[in-house]
Design goal:
There is one protein chain. The protein has about 325 residues and is of the alpha/beta class. Strand 1, helix 1 and strand 2 form a beta-alpha-beta unit. The longest helix is centred in the C-terminal third of the chain and has 19 residues. It is globular.
Length: about 325
């Protein structure tokens, strides 16, 4: 994003990728045609993170492109600050105010959205169990850090203090224990030089599911109640985090907003033509035999591990509770 005053703003979008086809690129460019104040540039990068990605044990629904976030200062040498966002999002309001207000001379590396309650990381069970491997200082950084789905990066200070080199070094040395890979790296290396953006800038689509339609079950801890209310009523960004995305699970919370914007793009026809087969594939992936086959490929001796039987027990326990 460039431009120094509100009346003369130019929005420059960059997509860093390894495998977007030329046809898809042309469709993306079509979206920008009506907007004289916006431009899109696609950067095809090499597979520089292949080895690092192979060493990540907990991949979940992530892809190796997440690591481009930690090398933004070298990818964009022409800028002193930049907004970094995931792609599984929709924007409902403008981002310029917080971006233009961000001071690159301040010793702050990142500005983003903090957890509504840092203690929600506990207990360290399930997918969070891996955090038991982290030191007390590392865990404190993660708890009080920001979400990597949307943040402003101070490229000027990151270059000055060689933070990119430190993040790469940490990633290589600790790949085996990373849980939310790039988010863990960003927070551990940059903490405590991290500021908080208003909660409006990134809202998970699951907030309404977890906390109720008016978020009545959410107790204010990090953000004041007034700011939480503003985030619910007037979010800047909805982030479809987790492994259930609207393009695969059309019934998830706030999927209607994603579909509303989809139909205004050149991708709509192609998407709806293949939606039926997508839903069928997702259903197949939920079946017991499909999961068993997948697990046997990943861990041929899974049936000898106590962890496998514990998962079956926990799921059976939850099912019984549901039926009661």
């Amino acid at each position: 994003m460039g431009g120094g005053v509100y009346e003369n703003i130019e929005y420059r979008f960059y997509v860093i990728h390894n495998d977007i086809s030329q046809i898809q690129i042309q469709k993306l460019q079509q979206i920008f045609t009506p907007f004289a104040f916006a431009s899109l540039k696609l950067i095809q990068d090499t597979d520089r993170f292949e080895n690092l990605w192979n060493n990540i044990l907990t991949k979940h629904h992530f892809a190796k492109e997440i690591f481009y976030k930690i090398v933004a200062s070298s990818l964009f040498p022409q800028y002193e600050k930049i907004i970094i966002s995931d792609v599984d999002v929709i924007f409902l309001d403008d981002v310029k105010e917080s971006f233009l207000a961000f001071n690159t001379d301040e010793k702050i590396y990142l500005s983003g959205i903090k957890s509504t309650n840092p203690n929600n990381i506990f207990p360290l069970t399930g997918w969070k169990e891996g955090y038991k491997k982290f030191s007390k200082i590392e865990l404190e950084s993660i708890m009080n850090g920001i979400g990597a789905g949307y943040f402003i990066a101070n490229l000027k200070q990151i270059r000055k203090d060689k933070i990119e080199e430190k993040m790469i070094d940490y990633a290589i040395k600790n790949a085996h224990k990373l849980i939310q890979p790039e988010q863990d790296i960003l927070n551990i290396v940059c903490y405590p030089y991290i500021k908080s953006l208003s909660l409006r800038h990134m809202i998970s689509h699951t907030m309404w599911q977890r906390y109720g339609e008016k978020w009545e079950k959410l107790t204010p801890v990090t953000y004041p109640e007034e700011e939480i209310t503003q985030a619910r009523i007037n979010p800047i960004q909805i982030h479809y985090d987790g492994n259930k995305k609207p393009w695969k699970y059309p019934n998830i919370p706030k999927s209607d907003l994603w579909f509303y914007y989809l139909v205004h793009t050149p991708f709509a026809k192609e998407f709806f033509n293949q939606l039926t087969s997508t839903i069928i594939d997702i259903y197949k992936q939920q079946t017991f035999f499909y999961r068993l086959k997948k697990l046997s490929k990943q861990e041929p001796l899974f049936f000898l591990k106590i962890k496998f039987y514990k998962k079956i027990y926990d799921k059976s326990k939850r099912l019984v509770k549901t039926l009661i």
